[in-house]
Fold this sequence. Notes:
The protein is mainly β.
Amino acid sequence: QVQLVESGGELVQPGGSLRLSCLASGFCFSGYYMRWYRQAAGKERELVASISPAGATTDYAESVKGRFTGSRNNAKNTMYLQMNSLKPEDTAVYYCNVRLGVDYWGQGTQVTVSS
């Protein structure tokens, strides 16, 4: 079955960096767009980044443009989100997503940006 497992979230100071990973299985990873979403406490889940199947095209939310970079390694069935210049407002649970007719989600990884 489809599985998405995120990792890499932790507590980091403002201005710091983190790299999140999403390990996928159960489908043809290289054939699909992959997405990163986040959900802050009390807010709706929002799209952060999307990455085309070959990784050639990426799109970002305005709030993270220039700071976050999405990438993928299709040989490892893994997607990444490099987050730089982190701000307290980036604090959220980050989820990876794939749309295979229906949406599949990982369990999420907590990112907390605080001094």
